[in-house]
């Protein structure tokens, strides 16, 4: 491998590393939490659910140096009154018709793999059709460098303190919103406005999934491998269209739970698809029917997209518009990546033989795909993306 053209290929190699995982360490480190809000005629009940690793990031908890898995009643009460209540007072506010109401921490508890913070606002005097509710959420943004995301769900119900958990468990939410460092305020008064907000939220989630690391850069590595053989514009568009159609089919079927597959199997097939295309680039003297191979493997990638979407779907009440919005966002992100790849290939092949570009790029993509494949088949969890 001549040193001269290896140096020229360095920018492309760097791009391959970035797309295949170099920047993806933070992609699955999303600090994801949830909140559920029961809106009744005279009170609001809420629970904020956080993973243990995220719960202990709350300011003041680490300083106590308690074993959070084995807390005494006294320690639990101390955390509730001296840490959580002041923190909620500072970081969370709820108002109805521009009037703020005090938020009382009822209790904190460990349930399964989550910590729950139970909140209550009393004597609110709500009237569902006329009131404007505002939730301002600023929890954990400072502690997580603005990476925390909270999926909020609204339930219009008069269930009391004892039965509200059943409502949360067995009913679909009326409204949904994603709270993050750029969307800290949730205003709602009617379902139409909430619907539009929900659509825009899932559209952005789909784009983040591709462009900002909400999902695997393995999908993009696959796309690079498909295109790096130096296709014509028509050929590249055919590949992209085949990929789009195939993953759209399985994304919609899986997200709507028409077809379900084991996620470990799906992710392993995705990794295998990357290895296969890279090896085909390296070993095949002539590549035929790439659009068909792309379509077949694209079906697995669609299931992968659906697996990443599942955590954001509240239920059938918002399923269709959420899935479609997410899909459109993914497609926009994929289209941007597609155009960037074509531009880079066009610029590089002006100075270097395309076969050498294909070979070097495919070697690095194969290595990344093989690491993913071994990690996923044997469920090693050594690769954090």
Automatic annotation (TrEMBL):
Chain segments annotated as coiled-coil in the UniProt record: none
Pfam families: HupE_UreJ_2
InterPro entries: Put_HupE_UreJ (IPR032809)
Residue stretches spanning the membrane: 210-229, 236-259, 265-282, 289-306, 326-348, 357-374
UniProt keyword annotations, A-Z: Membrane, Transmembrane, Transmembrane helix
Keyword Cytoplasm: no
Top-level taxonomic group: Bacteria
Protein name in UniProt: HupE/UreJ family protein
The species this protein was found in: Paenibacillus endophyticus
